[in-house]
Design a protein that fits this description.
332 residues; alpha/beta; five-stranded parallel beta sheet; 28% helix; 24% strand; elongated; binds flavin-adenine dinucleotide
Amino acid sequence: MAGENGILIVAETGADGSLGSITNELMSAAQGLSADLGEPISAALIGSGVGDRAQDIIDLGADTVYLVDGEQFANYLNETYTPAVIAIAQQANPRIILIGHTPNGRDLGPYLAVRLQTGIASDTSGLSIEGGQLQAARSVAGGLFRQVVSFPKMPAIATVHMKAYDGAEPQSGRSGNVVNVDVGLDASSVRSRFVKHEDAQVEGIRMEDATIVVTGGRGMGDEAGFNELYKLQALLPQSAVGATRAATDSGFCEQDLMIGITGRVVSPDVYFAIALSGASQHMAGCSGSKNIVAINRDPEANIFSESRFGVVGDYKQVLPALIEEVEKLMQG
Ligand SMILES: Cc1cc2nc3c(=O)[nH]c(=O)nc-3n(C[C@H](O)[C@H](O)[C@H](O)COP(=O)(O)OP(=O)(O)OC[C@H]3O[C@@H](n4cnc5c(N)ncnc54)[C@H](O)[C@@H]3O)c2cc1C
C-alpha cells in the first residue's frame, strides 16, 4: 500500500478497563517520532465498552483513535485482536506501528507482521527517524550488544520494551477524531476462548510500581541473609524487594522476585543493588532505574560502573548502618 503516513500505537487496557501504563509509554515514543516526521499519531483502541477511553488517549496526544468496541474483544485473543489491528491498519495506513512488549503485544506483533507481510523489531528500547524511516535499537545477547535495525518495507512494526519511555503526560481537553472500525469478524470462526484472568497474589506494592527497589544477589549468602533486605524495605515508602537469578536459584527467596532479562523489569527512582555483581542479564531488568546504589565488597564488581552511588564493603556491616541512618531520617 502506498502513501503510508503517521504512527499507529496499539493501546492496552487493564482488566478494569483503564488504560495500561504501556499506552502512555507508547504515546511518549510516538510523540518523538511524530515530531521528527511531522506526521500524526493515531491509536488502535480495542475492547468491550472501552469507548470512554478514547478521549483519554486523545489527551495523551493521539490525533485519531480507531475504535473497535464489541463483546468479542472483551479480552485479548490473538484470533480476534490480529484481524482488529489489521482492519485498523488498513484504514490508518501508518508508516509505523508501535506495540507494547507486554504478554499480549509479544503475541500480537509477530502475527501482525506476517499478516501485513512486513518486518518487526521486537523488544526495542530506542526509536529514531533516519532518512525519513524508523530505526529501532534493541538489546541482544543478554544486554551485551545493542542492535540497530531499519525496515525496507512499511509499515515498520516495533514492540517497545516496558518502561523504556517515561509515560506521556495527558493534556486535558485536547481535540481529536474517533473512528469506529468494523472488523467484520465471523464469531463462529474463532477457535479459541478466553477462560479467566487471575491476578497474582501480591503482598504490598507490585515491584513494577515501586519507586524504590531493594535487590539482593548471591552475596547475601543464604535465606536469612536475604531476609535482612526486608528490614530496609520496610522503612521505605512505595518499595519492594527483588533478587538476582543467582539468589532465586540458590533458594534465598521466591522465583517470582527475579529481575532481569528472564525476570521482571523495573525502573524505580532508587534501586539498591546489594551483594550482586551487575551481570548484563540482570541489568537488562533494572537499567532504567533513575539511581542505582550499589553495595559490594569487590571494588571491581561491574555494578559500580552502572551505579550513581556505591559503597565498597561487606553488606553485613554496611546494611545495618544504612538501616540505622534511614530509621533516623524517617523519624524526622
Ligand atoms: C540466558 C541467561 C539468562 C539470565 N537471566 C537472568 C536474569 O533475568 N536475571 C538475573 O539476575 N540473572 C540472569 N542470568 C544470570 C546472570 O548471568 C548472573 O549469573 C546473575 O545475575 C548473577 O547474580 P549475582 O550478581 O547475584 O551473583 P554473582 O555474579 O555471583 O555476584 C555476587 C556478588 O556479590 C558480591 N558479594 C559477595 N559477598 C558479599 C558480601 N558479603 N557483601 C557485599 N558483596 C558481596 C560479590 O563480590 C559479587 O559481586 C541469566 C543468565 C543467562 C545465561
